[in-house]
Design goal:
By secondary structure, the chain is α/β, with parallel strands linked by helices. 52% of the residues lie in helices and 16% in strands. It contains 6 helices and 4 strands. The chain has a 4-stranded parallel sheet, with helices on both faces. The longest helix has 20 residues.
Length: 156
């Protein structure tokens, strides 16, 4: 009996365009990884956007592949490349279509500090907007206070 070939999609993400070399490194590594595993790479998808952004083009294209049952495994370097929060939801959703997520490395490296700071600011800005209204003085004060605090922490 011939073993069925495993169709893989590589997904890579960085949060800003000055990290393009990291994006290329992710793709190169994942391509070699898939090759070593004997996976057939259907597509290589990537985004330059924060992990909290949900309207990423590459991610939406990935969802289409999954819903249309064109893939067996999604390969990423770290969980947070797919999403900063709610990884388990995505995992569950993919599983309903027979797709598994393969995370090549375990925990995120410590040097993702800047990305975490940006995501934290995005979360606080969103919640403050909901609490106080998007254009309110309180919201601006809270966000500016957090930015100042984070700058102080970084200097230490």
């Amino acid at each position: 009996v011939e073993a069925r070939e495993i169709r893989a999609i590589i997904y890579a993400r960085v949060s800003s365009s000055d990290q393009k070399s990291d994006l290329e490194r992710q793709i190169q590594y994942l391509t070699q990884y898939c090759s070593a595993k004997g996976y057939k790479v259907i597509d290589v998808l990537s985004d330059i956007a924060g992990g909290l952004k949900t309207n990423r083009r590459g991610l939406q294209k990935l969802f289409n592949y999954i819903v249309n049952k064109q893939v067996d495994v999604v390969v990423v370097t770290y969980k947070d490349r797919l999403t900063r929060f709610g990884f388990e939801y995505l995992e569950y959703f993919f599983k309903q279509f027979g797709v598994r997520i393969e995370v090549v490395y375990g925990e995120e490296p410590r040097d993702t500090y800047q990305e975490l700071v940006e995501d934290l600011l995005a979360v606080v800005t969103s919640f403050a907007g909901k609490l106080y209204g998007m254009r309110s003085h309180r919201k601006k004060k809270l966000v500016q206070g957090l930015k100042k605090l984070l700058e102080e922490v970084e200097k230490e």
